[in-house]
Specification:
Blueprint (H helix, E strand, L loop, with lengths): L1 H27 L3 E5 L5 H16 L4 E5 L4 H12 L5 E4 L8 H9 L3 E5 L11 E5 L1 H15 L6 E5 L7 H19 L3 E3 L19 H11 L5 H14 L6 E6 L3 H12 L4 E6 L6 H8 L6 E3 L2 H16 L8 E4 L4 E7 L2 E3 L1 H9 L5 H6 L2
Parallel strand pairs: 1-2, 1-3, 3-4, 4-5, 5-12, 6-7, 6-8, 8-9
Antiparallel strand pairs: 10-13, 11-12
Helix pairs in contact: 2-11, 3-4, 5-6, 6-7, 8-9
Length: 369
């Protein structure tokens, strides 16, 4: 009788343990895993907030992890999310090529992979890509400089790019060059800091077909999306430049963080009398720079809209539906179906309109650092 009671107790304990483990597993389960590049840039913190709000509203559980600029951390983040039984991985790659190892693991686990804002290259383990029209971002930046100096010739032009590990940097630059190349050929601008691009004046560069050419050019003007690198490079360019290459200058800066750093370098040079400089992301600190006249424009990519678009795509995937795609992007391994979100140019006048409309808060701009 004692043996039977002991057996019953043992079975009861095992059942309780199994139920407890099952409960823990359910608690650990997450619908959508999100991996973003770093907490150090305000833009990605904005994206984190947008994702959490959009996915929570749609009824999905999610977890956001940051790679802090390291591909090995990115890989471990993906592995940690896979252990939580995610169904969809949304990833903004730190390094477009290195991230292939992470998404390959996700695909092997049966997880759908959505590239967010940056396309992962060289692997077929990518299901969808959600992005702003990166080419149009570059076009908007280049056209802004052209419009700012219409009817002028010989304007010194300094060009900078994002990281060569980011496929978007190639697309941004190609977009800008698609309009700037004609302006340079017509004599409106004279490029001061990139002799390697001279043979492509008057010619457009395709981010896919001319990838190696662009890699060489971007390698000479890359900021690596890093503030200190951007400022150091700009300062070095100014040291090398003579008086004729200064005065009133035009500057193609790839994003807001680098724009502020480059603007600081140019404004510190007494021989630079004025400048027009581009940016993107509508970071609060750059909106303050725009109000103060230290940055000319930014390309606003509404991350809340991008997150919502991503959420719609995730919703379709979780329901085993085929998401709508409006374009395809080749990642050097396949044509990836993609959805695109429109962008908006914000200069001082447009910013005033957006503040009046309640889109941006003056108090947040004033307190930005």
């Amino acid at each position: 009788m004692k043996k039977i009671l002991a057996l019953i107790l043992s079975l009861a304990m095992l059942t309780a343990m199994a139920m407890s483990l099952a409960s823990c597993a359910e608690e650990e389960s997450v619908d959508v895993g999100i991996v973003l590049p770093t907490k150090e840039e305000p833009r990605w913190l904005q994206d984190e907030t947008s994702f959490k709000e959009a996915l929570d509203k749609a009824g999905f559980t999610s977890e956001v992890l940051f790679s802090q600029g390291k591909s090995d951390v990115e890989l471990s983040n993906v592995e940690a999310l896979l252990e939580k039984n995610i169904k969809v991985l949304v990833i903004c790659a730190q390094d477009a090529t290195a991230a292939g190892a992470a998404v390959n693991k996700a695909q092997a686990a049966g997880v759908k992979v959505v590239c967010y804002d940056r396309l992962i290259t060289g692997t077929e383990a990518v299901d969808y890509y959600v992005t702003f029209n990166s080419f149009s971002v570059g076009v908007a930046q280049g056209q802004y400089l052209i419009d700012a100096y219409k009817d002028k010739t010989g304007v010194p032009l300094y060009i900078y790019s994002g990281a060569v590990t980011d496929n978007n940097a190639f697309i941004f630059f190609a977009g800008a060059w698609s309009v700037l190349n004609k302006a340079v050929a017509d004599g409106q601008f004279v490029i001061q800091n990139c002799p390697d691009i001279a043979e492509y004046v008057g010619k457009e560069l395709d981010p896919e077909k001319d990838h190696e050419v662009l890699a060489n050019i971007l390698g000479k003007i890359t900021t690596n999306w890093d503030f200190a690198t951007a400022k150091t490079l700009a300062e070095a360019n100014l040291v090398d430049a003579d008086a004729a290459a200064k005065g009133d200058v035009a500057i193609l800066a790839p994003n807001d963080g680098t724009a502020r750093a480059i603007a600081d370098a140019f404004s510190a040079d007494a021989a630079v009398t004025s400048y027009v400089i581009t940016g993107q992301d509508a970071e609060m600190a750059s909106l303050k720079y725009i109000q103060d006249g230290k940055q000319s424009m930014t390309v606003w990519k509404d991350t809340a809209t991008l997150a919502t678009s991503t959420c719609d795509l995730v919703n379709a995937l979780l329901k085993d539906e085929t998401p709508k795609a409006v374009a395809t992007y080749n990642n050097q391994a396949k044509d990836v179906p993609s959805t695109e979100v429109a962008v908006t140019v914000v200069d001082k006048d447009k910013l005033a309109e957006l503040i009046a409309a309640g889109t941006f808060e003056q108090a947040k701009i004033d307190s930005a650092k």
